[in-house]
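=== Structure Prediction Worksheet ===
Name of assembly: unnamed complex
Input type: mixed (protein and possibly other molecules)
Chain count: two
Listed entries:
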Amino acid sequence: MRHLMLSAAGLALMAGAAKADDLTLQLKWVTQAQFAGYYVAQDQGFYEEEGVNVTILPGGPDIAPTQVLAGGGADVVVEWMPAALAARERGLPLVNIAQPFKSSGMMLTCLAETGITDPATDFAGKTLGVWFSGNEYPFLSWMNTLGLSTEGGPEGVTVLKQGFNVDPLLQKQAACISTMTYNEYGQVLDAGLTEDDLITFKYEDQGVATLEDGLYVLESTLEDSEKVTSLVRFVRASMRGWEWAAENPEEAARIVLENDETGAQTLEHQTRMMSEIALLLEGSDGTLDEADYQRTVDILLAGGSDPVISAAPEGAWVSTITDRAFD
Amino acid sequence: MSALPLLGVWLGGWALNIWLARFDTRATRALVAVIFGATIVILWEMAVRIYAIPTVILPAPSQIADSFVANRSILWTDFVQTILRGALTGWVIGALAAILTAIAIDRSPFLQRGLLPIGNFVAALPIVGIAPILVMWFGFDWQSKAAVVVVMVFFPILVNMVAGLKATDPMQRDLMASWAAPYGASLWKLRLPAAMPFLFNGLKITTTLALIGAIVAEFFGSPTRGMGFRISTAVGRLDLPLVWAEIVVAALAGTLFYGLVALIEKKVTFWHPSQRT
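=== Predicted Assembly ===
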């Protein structure tokens, strides 16, 4: 309740004086170690030192960050590049300003008993669990590159809209389900299956990895020079937060827990998540690597009948923010 | 200033309706409602254009209509999956089960004391709680959606039917008894017809519940078709006109479904005072 009162008071203050150094960040998913860097930067006062006042809004199953951005509910969103580029093609001019995550944590986890060993030959006729709400694009691109239809039948794959748990695999309703290295894979193991029962296909290993968890703003935000300065400070402080979180996974998990108002997360789970996330951060200082961007675009364009994006995007990322933040 | 045209249209529609209200014929009564609806749609379209509201927030009716026409095959597939297979199957099974249970309860006070509280308990379970469980039991396809609908419609129909079976006068029951009518005959000839107005109340209420149940149940895992699936995923793809087109289909289907049940009621309970116009 006190939390609520405080945030209500905070909102009232913000409404009274929306200044350029006030930034609202909309997360892609619920409060968890996947976003530890931002919570750490706030908790350790990195944002304060930079003079930016950041409000972090957790996401959830029915929150599409791109929609929140379009509606003016946030200045910056954490989003996966496929969804961001698809939104861009639909007329919502999203721009990537920083890319803290170097690698993708996405994979398909399959039951070994299904006999799947090679995606290219063994997926046909199987049922696969996939997340939607903008997270289906990497999967659809992968199936396109394999030349598999997602309409079912013996030659294609049957797609299940996966909920937010790993039950379809445990119930054997699906041969494989989507999992993140840092989250759902652990849930499958927690449910009593061993690594020997499972076979996993990481998007990274299959060469179909797309960039995840980048920071995106609307083009119009970049025309406001004061906002740009705030964004530079925000990105610099956030990357400090990420470094700190990668070095101190347990403390970072604790900070995440303190910020989790749902009370659904446990320290053990969050610490494990943080260690896995740290692996995805390796090799990125927050600057988008153009080769990674190009690979993501190529994968998304490489679609048979139904590519995720139909043309190479123009101006979908800028290096100006990270250049100023890290020079 | 830009609100002036909106205000003008609103006042114009209002004035027209006030003038029409003087003529109390069947045609004008229908026209008044049509004009009201049309005014709302026109105002919506104007507001979206005047204030340049982004499509992601609220698409204009014209965009929704375009999407409706362009996606007819998708909408039809979803309609069959959700309304015909999920909602209608579940509604029929739930209604039959509720009617039979009501007759059993009416026959035996023992069952009445046991079954009604259980029915009440099941009805109080939140759909978001039971939907994932039923998906686990009955699989991802429409069977689990129908199961959710059965759970949702069962209790309202049961309560109405139980009340309906009690709706005869002692005088009427005594008359049946004095003709030595067995239980079956008095049920079939007197008490079931007397229960019909109550039963149809329950059936009408649950038409909308069935639609809601079938659509919401699809949020918790579904094959890649169905109205609930499309509504929840098209939002993620920022295809809001398609979402609204689905909402239009749901509204039309709901109205039609209710209308059909009301029509059958008119035919079945023509003798009841409430049906006199």
